[in-house]
TrEMBL record:
This is Type II toxin-antitoxin system RelE/ParE family toxin. InterPro entries: RelE/ParE_toxin_dom_sf. It comes from the Bacteria.
Length: 126
């Protein structure tokens, strides 16, 4: 029996910027617990990467794709265009506690696009 091929998982520069923003927010919110909370987030992200390497479609369908407002549809179209440019046809979200990771994937590749807290209205994608 052969094991299925693992997908390659990479982080886009935008995702890394969002992660740095989350670190700064945690530090500004409560400096005494920020390091532990950020460490937990990073550990959860490592676990997510391992899951997505084996099952790229492991997240839920990206909910923002069904948005109804004109502004939200424009933002969704921009994100879909970024995924298409990378040759990754599917957009999904992976929930990690109070954070949501937006990613694009194919059967062999996963690109982490953005990270947001559940209280944020939308993804910061440049």
């Amino acid at each position: 029996m052969t094991l299925p091929q693992r997908a390659r998982v990479e982080a886009a520069p935008n995702f890394l910027a969002n992660l740095d923003d989350a670190r700064r927010f945690l530090r500004d919110q409560d400096e005494t617990t920020a390091q532990a909370r950020f460490g937990k987030l990073r550990g959860d992200l490592r676990e997510m990467v391992a899951v997505l390497a084996w099952t790229p479609a492991g997240g839920r369908p990206a909910r923002f794709l069904s948005a109804r407002s004109a502004q939200a549809r424009l933002r969704a179209a921009r994100i879909q265009a970024l995924a298409a440019e990378a040759g990754l046809p599917y957009l999904r979200e992976y929930v990690i506690g109070r954070y949501i990771v937006l990613y694009a994937h194919s059967a062999t590749e996963v690109v982490l696009l953005a990270l947001k807290h559940e209280r944020q209205l939308g993804y910061s994608v440049t």
